[in-house]
Each structure stands twice: as structure tokens, then as C-alpha cells.
Amino acid sequence: MSASAYVPAGADLETLRKAASECRGCDLYRHATQIVFGAGPGDARVVMIGEQPGDREDVVGHPFVGPAGRLLNRALVEAGIDRSMVYLTNAVKHFKFEERGKRRIHQQPGRTEIVACRPWLEAELSVVRPELVVCLGAVAAQTVFGPSFRVTRQRGEVIALEDYRAVATVHPSAILRAPDREAAYEEFIADLRTVRTAME
Ligand code: URA
Which domain range does residue 173 map to? Predict the structure, then answer.
């Protein structure tokens, strides 16, 4: 399973977005409402990568518009980062969920889906060519740094990769679930301040 057959070579973001809506590179398209492609300026210096769209994103069709997105917005403001200057996307572009009654419960994407969806992320990165990539959570971090990366140990560390520098922090949803939300939020802000400083 891979999206690679659906990704047009040398395409701009708009062409990629249109092509992505036809993606059948894994099975997640079968149950999701729509693909949620990345959003933001095509010349952004910073790309932020989440895990996968949530329930709200699946309905609206844009990344980070639900509860995690609201937390991220607030944190970005507090850290002095302008969201409109950031290209936001996800490691996996369809919502994976399990139906329980009327509710759709988020399910973590598996290795197969993450690997299958990777060509879209690579295509986005090769168009945007960011200076800094920010991984929100373990799925994004392992996609960018490899499977042995541990966010708990290496969060906030700016690491030079071949085409850009990259840094990982926790996923905003993890803050919403944290036993001590305030402390988790403060640590998240500290990581985002590192991002801002790295961009100066
Ligand atoms: N969580 C993510 O990882 N991405 C979104 O777009 C929304 C919630």
C-alpha cells in the first residue's frame, strides 16, 4: 500500500491537493469524509506536522480546526508564532476512527498507513522547502526522524537533517489528556519558544 502512484511529479500545492482527493493508497479513504490536505503558505519557513485529522477536521476538510487546533492556536500566540505564516499538515491525511454508537473514536494510524501516506508529506515538503519542520507528537516525529526517536527524551532539540532543521514536541491532544494540563501546556510553550528562537 502506498500513495506514491497518486502523487503527481513536480506538482504545485494546488495540484497535489486535488490529486490527493483521489488517493486510494491505503484503506482509510473508505470511511473518512474527505482527505485533509495541508494548509498554509506555499513559501512558509516553518512546516508543522500533526498525526492525522480528527473528527472535526474530517468534516471541515482543514487541519487543526478542532479542540487540538484551538489549543495549538492559543499556544502559538503565546509563543509569538503567527499561525498564518506556518504550513500545517499531518503525517496521515485521512481520519482513522472506530464507530461507537453515534461517536467516532480516534484510532492511532498504524505503520502501514503512515508509510503509505508518506509520499504526500514528502511532496508537500519538497514544494514548501521549509527551513524548520516541527513534529507534533510521536507519529510525526518518527516519520521525520525514524522509528527510534523518542519525543519524551528528545523534545525541544533542534536537529539538522539533510534538507531542513527539525524539532519535535508533544501533540496538542496529549496536553488535553494530560493529568497536569497546566504543566504540560507550559512545557509545550517552552518548546514552541525554541521554535521561534530557531527562526530568528
Ligand atoms: N490532530 C492532528 O494531528 N491533526 C489535526 O489536523 C487535528 C488534530
Answer: 4-199
